[in-house]
Amino acid sequence: MRTRESSPTNPHGNFGSASRSMDLDQRFAAEKAFSSVLVSTVREAVGNALGHNVLEILASKGLLDDASNSKEFDRKLQSLFGNGAAVLERIVVKDLNRKLGIPYNSEARLDYEKSLEIAREVCFVESRMK
Amino acid sequence: MFRGEPDEMSGSEILLTLLGSEIRGDLLVLFHKNPGLIDTVDAIARRIGRTTVTVISELRELLELGVLRQKRIGASEVVFLDRAKDRELLESVANHLKTIRIGGEK
After folding, report:
1. % residues pLDDT > 90 (chain B)
2. CA A15, CA A20: separation in Å to the nearest integer?
3. I need a labelling partner for A83 at 20 to 30 A (CA). Which of A77, A91, A99, A128 fits?
4. What are residue B78's phi and psi, to 5 degrees?
5. 77-96 in B: which are within 8 Å (CB) of A?
6. CB–CB of A84 and B33 under 8 A?
7. Quick check: helix, strand or coil at residue B6?
8. Residue in chain A nearest B98 by alpha carbon
9. Are B55 and B68 contacting, i.e. CB atoms less than 8 angstroms apart?
10. Contact call for B97 and A82, based on CB within 8 A
């Protein structure tokens, strides 16, 4: 069964080719797995850069509530850190790519949303292979 | 080579300095993951996959802020994390962030 409805963690229903060929249960499990990897990566990245106290304050402000919604996360990060948001996003993407075995190019301009889409796709492909 | 630490800075100024560039972000992560690290500028640059030339000005900013310090060991100048200053600076950042509302929320 192929479905394209949106989910709470991906309101745009934009899952890419790997996820389109998954059934609903597989897709839900893969999305959950991706969300878990992403949130733990964001926690590690922010914690390692700015310390545990800052991380907890950001968590209490809801920064991590919907971290896999890249637009919303980017908006929240911008409102808190201004230009520093891009640095934190780079740290997140670098860590995430390392965990998923995706090459990272620090010279290239970072598109946070696109980077997360690629990471999600890789995560889904890995889920299908299990 | 490096000037001393600046006068009192606000939490937002500290944050701007800490996250002023990707390299500074990488340096913060490196030293927070390895708080006992003491190494030369060349070795630190290698650890984060950069060249000394690209790292030196970013290190200078963190040395001026006081989160990193420099000392001579034998013939080498080494850089290390000032843990007490780091805690103090991050506390200021935390206090600053407490006052900010995400995305204009009330």
Report:
1. 85
2. 7
3. A99
4. -120, 160
5. 86-87, 90-91, 93-94
6. no
7. coil
8. A57
9. no
10. no
Q: In sequence order, what DSSP letters do the residues of A46-109 get, joined into one string? A: HHHHHHHHHHHHHHHTTTTTTTT-HHHHHHHHHHHHTTHHHHHHHHHHHHHHHHHT----TTSP
DSSP alpha helices (H): ranges in chain B? 11-18, 22-33, 41-47, 52-65, 83-98
Flag whether pLDDT at A101 surpasses 80. Answer: yes
Domains defined along chain B, listed by start? 11-93 (1.10.10.10)
Q: Do A90 and B21 touch (CB under 8 A)?
A: no
Please report the residues numbered 38 through 57 in chain A whose beta carbons come closer than 8 angstroms to any beta carbon of chain B: 45, 48-51, 53-54, 57
- The pLDDT assigned to B53 comes to 97
Structure tokens at B105: 């929320």
**Is A64's pLDDT higher than 80?**
yes
Chosen for mutation from A54, A58, A97, A107 (greatest number of chain B CBs closer than 10 Å) is A54
How far apart, in whole angstroms, are the C-alpha atoms of residue B50 and residue B47? 8
